[in-house]
């Protein structure tokens, strides 16, 4: 009883009796001086018996108290178990855990910290200090200085310290400014996964039994939190799928390509909670990627820019046909930092999903940075891929509609042009005018730098109209081109179109312009017979398309009729001239002998050479009258 010596000296007891509730000394009875003298042996035996009975009673009371406490704890755990089974709201579940835990584990501080696998962080989900909930700390990462909490979350082993400040000193850690004497923490374990931990602190010591009960609470809480998390994820997924369905219906209802692309990216950004997004389409001609849409705070200045094929994460996703997720872009050697430097945007995480239509890549969608700071996951990949599938179909439909609409508009425009051409050609019966109109329209619609139209004659191809050659063809217009020479001669002989994508590769090419790189030559046919040739030249390689061939073919079909009409008119005009010349010649040749006949007849009738008989005069008058009639004719 050395710790009690000071108190015992004040009391001055004469008799001390031990109280045993267990194997050791649990207390004592102290009696002062007895009135009337010393304690007898009988009195001492009575005191000893009374102490023994008191020890037994105290032991029994302690057992009863312990049983009552255990029953109370079990009732709390049972009630918690039932309540947790029916509590589905996440925040309600956290409140319930604290309310029930506080009944069996007194604590001025209580916190629930959960692992966030998306960000690989340990965050506070519930935080209470001095019996007041602090929501400003909820959702924040557990500070790195809280080493003990991170140790429990990492190892899955509970910790209990009833000398909390001393333990922090022993570990060389920063003292807790809250000044709690006792600290306890248990892990939240579901299956093989450590979900987080429950932690409590206060001025009162915690027992091993309380640690066991706290562990039991944590086990039940882990199951409830797992169910709540799965339910929340299921609800989120259902909401995303519903939104995805709505988006699919929405994007399939528009055929405006630009509007559709904007809607696809905006929907992807919204569904995945991203900060920014973009969409690239493959350029069919070059194979590169065109930056078509940007949604977010920056990136609008990049719209319209082009990227070489196979470059960057977009190229990787398109070329390999699979999604690319990068959750630390700044330290990834594949990341092109030029885009961030241009826009001022800091890309931390990104996900790129290819757009495919009938096993053919048509582009890619790329999203940047989750708004909540988390990482992109496989679930995000699956969700974005589910959006990309109908988006690709809608984009191709919009493209097809746009192309069809453009083709129809081009066809209508061409028909209008052909009507104008027909009016101009048919109002002219001058073959030179017809040729000039034909070459002018051909150059206008194809973008050729030079061209000519030739008529096929018995001597060869006679150039009638030229454009873009300057003085280099003046001499050629004066003499026909033999049809056994050059590309034009080949077309005149065969009656087939010649499209030379690189004139340097054609042995029949006879150059006039040094800058010519490609040439298109078509026959002008009338009633399946070659009547002429139109030739067009360009300074670009492979400059003429199928559309150009189609237009010029239809142009020369119309022109051939006008050419035939002009040639027929020229032939008729020539016949008329020949007829007039013939009549003039005949009239002149007939009038020449008639003049002297008439003159001599008049002399005879005047009697200048003698008297005429009536019969002679009658015959001369017949001659004279016939001469007059022939003159009139």
Verbal overview:
A six-stranded antiparallel β-sheet has the order 5-4-3-8-7-6, with helices on both faces. Strands 11-10-9-14-13-12 form a six-stranded antiparallel β-sheet, with helices on both faces. The longest helix is centred in the last third of the chain and has 60 residues, at 546-605. The chain is 50% helix and 20% strand. The chain has helices at 5-11, 41-86, 90-104, 147-155, 164-170, 208-251, 257-272, 312-320, 338-343, 378-426, 431-446, 474-477, 486-494, 546-605, 614-632; strands at residues 15-19, 27-31, 109-116, 121-129, 132-133, 159-161, 182-190, 193-202, 274-282, 289-295, 306-307, 324-326, 350-357, 360-370, 450-456, 461-467, 498-500, 518-526, 529-538. Helix 6 packs antiparallel against helix 7 (257-272) and helix 11 (431-446) runs antiparallel to helix 14. It contains 15 helices and 19 strands. It is rod-shaped. With 633 residues, the chain is an alpha+beta fold.
State the main characteristics.
20% strand; alpha+beta; six-stranded antiparallel sheet; rod-shaped; single chain; 633 residues
């Amino acid at each position: 009883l050395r710790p009690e010596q000071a108190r015992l000296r004040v009391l001055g007891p004469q008799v001390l009796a031990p109280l045993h509730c267990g194997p050791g000394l649990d207390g004592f009875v102290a009696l002062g001086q007895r009135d009337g003298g010393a304690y007898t042996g009988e009195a001492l035996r009575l005191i000893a018996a009374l102490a023994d009975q008191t020890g037994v009673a105290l032991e029994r009371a302690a057992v009863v108290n312990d049983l009552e406490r255990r029953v109370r704890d079990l009732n709390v755990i049972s009630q918690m178990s039932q309540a947790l089974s029916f509590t589905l709201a996440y925040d309600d579940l956290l409140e319930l855990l604290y309310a029930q835990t506080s009944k069996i584990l007194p604590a001025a501080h209580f916190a629930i910290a959960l692992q966030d696998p998306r960000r690989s962080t340990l965050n506070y989900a519930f935080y209470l200090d001095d019996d007041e909930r602090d929501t400003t700390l909820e959702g924040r990462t557990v500070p790195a200085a809280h080493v003990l909490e991170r140790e429990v979350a990492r190892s899955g082993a509970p910790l209990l310290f009833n000398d909390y400040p001393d333990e922090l000193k022993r570990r060389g850690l920063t003292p807790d400014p809250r000044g709690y004497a006792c600290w306890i923490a248990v892990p939240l374990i579901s299956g093989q996964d450590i979900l987080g931990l429950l932690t409590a602190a206060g001025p009162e010591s915690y027992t091993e039994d309380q640690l066991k009960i706290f562990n039991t609470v944590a086990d039940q809480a882990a199951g409830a939190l797992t169910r709540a998390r799965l339910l929340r994820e299921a609800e989120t997924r259902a909401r995303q799928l519903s939104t995805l369905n709505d988006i699919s219906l929405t994007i399939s209802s528009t055929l405006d390509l630009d509007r559709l692309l904007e809607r696809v990216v905006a929907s992807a950004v919204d569904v995945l909670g991203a900060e920014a997004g973009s969409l690239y389409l493959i350029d069919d001609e070059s194979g590169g990627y065109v930056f078509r849409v940007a949604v977010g705070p920056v990136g609008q200045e990049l719209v319209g820019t082009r990227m070489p094929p196979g470059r960057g994460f977009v190229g990787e996703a398109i070329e390999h046909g699979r999604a690319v997720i990068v959750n630390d872009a700044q330290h990834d050697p594949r990341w092109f930092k030029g885009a961030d430097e241009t826009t001022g945007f800091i890309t931390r995480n990104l996900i790129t999903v290819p757009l495919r239509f009938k096993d053919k890549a048509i582009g890619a969608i790329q999203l940047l940075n989750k708004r909540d700071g988390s990482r992109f996951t496989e679930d995000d990949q699956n969700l974005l891929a589910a959006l990309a599938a109908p988006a690709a179909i809608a984009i191709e439909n919009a493209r097809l509609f746009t192309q069809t609409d453009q083709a129809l508009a081009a066809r209508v425009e061409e028909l209008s042009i052909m009507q104008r051409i027909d009016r101009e050609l048919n109002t002219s019966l001058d073959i030179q005018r017809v040729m000039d109109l034909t070459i002018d329209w051909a150059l206008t619609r194809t973008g050729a730098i030079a061209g000519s139209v030739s008529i096929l004659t018995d001597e060869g191809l006679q150039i009638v109209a030229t454009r873009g050659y300057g003085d280099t063809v003046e001499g050629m217009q004066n003499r026909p081109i033999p049809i056994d020479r050059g590309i034009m001669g080949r077309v005149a002989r065969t009656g087939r179109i010649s499209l030379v994508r690189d004139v340097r590769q054609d042995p029949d090419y006879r150059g006039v312009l040094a800058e010519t790189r490609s040439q298109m030559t078509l026959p002008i046919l009338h009633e399946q017979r070659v009547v002429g040739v139109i030739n067009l030249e360009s300074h670009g390689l492979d400059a003429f398309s199928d559309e150009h061939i189609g237009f010029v073919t239809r142009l020369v079909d119309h022109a051939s009729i006008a050419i035939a009409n002009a040639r027929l008119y020229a032939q008729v005009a020539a016949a008329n001239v020949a007829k007039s010349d013939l009549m003039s010649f005949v009239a002149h040749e007939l009038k020449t002998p008639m003049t002297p006949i008439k003159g001599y007849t008049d002399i005879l009738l005047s009697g200048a050479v003698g008297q005429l008989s009536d019969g002679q005069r009658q015959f001369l008058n017949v001659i004279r009258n016939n001469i007059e009639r022939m003159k009139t004719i």
